[in-house]
Amino acid sequence: MTQALLIRIMADGLLVPIVLIGIYALTFKIPKGHKLESYKRILMAGLTAYLIAKLVGSFYQPSAERPFELLGSAAGASFLKNPGFPSDHVLFVAAITFAVWFETKQKLITILLAFLTLAVCVGRVAALVHTPVDIIGGIVIAMIGALWYLNGTPLAKRPKLSLSKRQK
């Protein structure tokens, strides 16, 4: 296997198993009775991250050109015709990883997805379609979207704070 093919698989091809593993985990590993609430949080987390990414990307771009353009070479992976901050590929796979982590609590699946997500990050930089700043931006923005998962326990099920006898 050539180096270029390996980089392309890491940068683009790993999205397929990440999506399939995510679908499996989010379909079969969320407890019954919790799926609707989980899916609402996943939708809101993803939409929030995407909106923030587009807003930030509209006013902040570390460079007007992608690394392969600056070096005068060909791109080693697919890309959109924009400066590239933040990485949409990384934002997408990180959002799936966070959804599986928070909503299923499946440690092995989450570790596998985190490893695959890291491989996508390395692949996007190695393919010269993103800089490390683009990658970090995608992960950080996915983490901001993941704040929706902190609201995972309904108020009615949260432990009540008891007042001490003196405060009653």
Description:
The chain is mostly helical. The chain has one domain (3-152). Helices cover 63% and strands 0% of the residues. The chain contains seven helices and no strands. It has helices spanning 3-13, 15-28, 35-59, 67-71, 88-104, 107-126, 132-145. Helix 1 packs across helix 6, helix 2 (15-28) runs parallel beside helix 5 and helix 3 crosses helix 7 (132-145). It is flat and about 55 Å long. The termini are far apart. The mean pLDDT is 91.
Short description:
The chain is mainly alpha-helical and 168 residues long.
Structural class: mainly alpha
Based on CA atoms alone, the radius of gyration comes out at 19 Å
Low-confidence stretches: none
Mean pLDDT: 91
Instruction: Tell me the series of helices and strands, N- to C-terminal.
Output: HHHHHHH
Features:
single chain, 168 residues, mainly alpha, 7 helices, flat
What's the topology here?
Layout: H1 3-13, H2 15-28, H3 35-59, H4 67-71, H5 88-104, H6 107-126, H7 132-145
Helix pairs in contact: 1-6, 2-5, 2-6, 3-5, 3-7, 5-6, 5-7
